[in-house]
Design goal:
The chain has one helix and 13 strands. It is mostly beta strands and about 200 residues long. Strand 1 and strand 2 form a beta hairpin.
């Protein structure tokens, strides 16, 4: 489709200060207000981190898993602001990312390290949960992305709300050390906000 100069979103006219004449061009007005700022003011932005995890080498485990989960019947959507994995080891890591994870089979633990970003609402508990573990037998989800985290480095996905986790679903990261002879150590953190589903109706 051919787009002409009048087809813009949030159009505002540019006016010459000297001549007070309307320009033949129209410009899109952009306001860069962070979702994090807005949601923090709304007391709905949370941060959390897993325990330190190990696999490969002497750890007896080949893989590690991290999940940000939205409980069944939560009546909220979770919007992922960012996901950060930090590699404390010599071996680079392969990360497989799964979307729309409905269920898993295996043993996982829940993190107790989470907080709300706005200290004016200190003590507020999120509905979203961070899980981690080494022993998953099956993942019911969609494998959609792959990345490598170099040794002694961090990777920030910076989703900025583009990943939405609805009630009963999870966002899952599978971690595999490239050098399985070395014991790899890493940690995962998430930042997210929660919105009531009823706010859309």
């Amino acid at each position: 489709m051919k787009i002409n100069q009048n087809q813009y979103i949030n159009k505002s006219r540019f006016t010459s200060a000297k001549e007070n004449l309307t320009s033949p061009f129209e410009f899109e007005h952009v306001s860069d207000i962070s979702n994090g700022y807005i949601q923090s003011k709304n007391f709905s932005l949370f941060n959390g981190v897993s325990d330190d995890m190990y696999c490969g080498g002497n750890s007896t485990f080949e893989y590690a898993y991290f999940l940000l989960s939205n409980p069944i019947k939560s009546k909220i959507n979770i919007y992922v602001k960012n996901s950060i994995i930090t590699n404390h080891s010599h071996s680079p890591l392969i990360i497989k990312i799964y979307y729309c994870v409905e269920d898993i089979v295996g043993k996982i633990e829940s993190s107790n390290f989470f907080c709300i970003s706005n200290s004016n609402s200190s003590g507020t508990i999120p509905q979203g949960k961070i899980f981690f573990g080494n022993e998953l037998d099956k993942i019911y989800g969609v494998y959609g992305q792959n990345l490598i985290v170099p040794s002694y480095n961090s990777y920030n996905l910076n989703e900025n709300g583009s990943i939405v986790i609805s009630s009963g679903f999870s966002y899952l990261f599978e971690v595999i050390p490239i050098n399985s002879d070395i014991t790899s150590n890493f940690i995962m953190s998430f930042s997210w906000w929660e919105e009531s589903i009823s706010s859309y109706f």
